[in-house]
Amino acid sequence: MNYKEFENCSVNLFFRIFSGKWKPLILHHFFYTGDERFIELWRKMPKISKKVLLEQLKEMENDGIVVRKQVNTFPPEVYYGLSETGKSLEQLLLHIESWMENYQLQRTTELDPMKEKQK
Amino acid sequence: MNYKEFENCSVNLFFRIFSGKWKPLILHHFFYTGDERFIELWRKMPKISKKVLLEQLKEMENDGIVVRKQVNTFPPEVYYGLSETGKSLEQLLLHIESWMENYQLQRTTELDPMKEKQK
DNA sequence: CAGTATCCCGCGTGATACTG
DNA sequence: CAGTATCACGCGGGATACTG
């Protein structure tokens, strides 16, 4: 790889798109609950400020992962959910989860006190 | 999911482990070139300072992804490479790459000027 | 040559109040 | 209720010089 190209390399871009602090949680939520009204989404994530939640949603919207649907004019009623592209993430996220499961299993046995005693 | 548990949820942890600015590049390098001496690795990444490269390596070492091997005492001669756990990442990284390829393809057609004109 | 010590800066994240 | 405006802060990342 040419290192000038690195900034645009796909894996790097992947992390740039998805590594917002709350994005994995938001995606997880959409996969399990489906589309949701903004206020509901926000209520279910008590530790995140509205501003930040909106930012994360807007970023993913700009990246084509999330879709925003405005229903009424007043009072505002906005729903967020996954785009088709967003939905296509499911297998990949499951892959990540299963890799991590293995990883954490290995780590706990590596750091197992029983093994430490053998030293 | 309980949101107290979120900080330790697997996908989130995954991003915490791998989203250092240079980690994807370092991993990519190890997959293509194998183990490498520190100075060589550093020379091939001109835009990164030694301090930061060392930090990223040490973090991944602590996370069990990277292995550090010291050969001589003086002058120091240190090699870095992938652990078995690190090597087990290959399929997942390929999955990410292929998903991203698709993603970027979709994006470019979505934003294609030809389609814009149809509006 | 590998690694550390300092100092520095910008950005992602956060709290809070405000607007339409 | 959805979204914006301010202000603030910690931390990841960076430049540079130094040490063993």
UniProtKB/TrEMBL annotation, chains A, B:
It holds the Pfam family HxlR. InterPro entries: HTH_HxlR, WH-like_DNA-bd_sf, WH_DNA-bd_sf. It comes from the Bacteria. GO terms for molecular function: DNA binding. Keywords: DNA-binding, Transcription, Transcription regulation. This is HxlR family transcriptional regulator. It comes from Sphingobacterium siyangense.
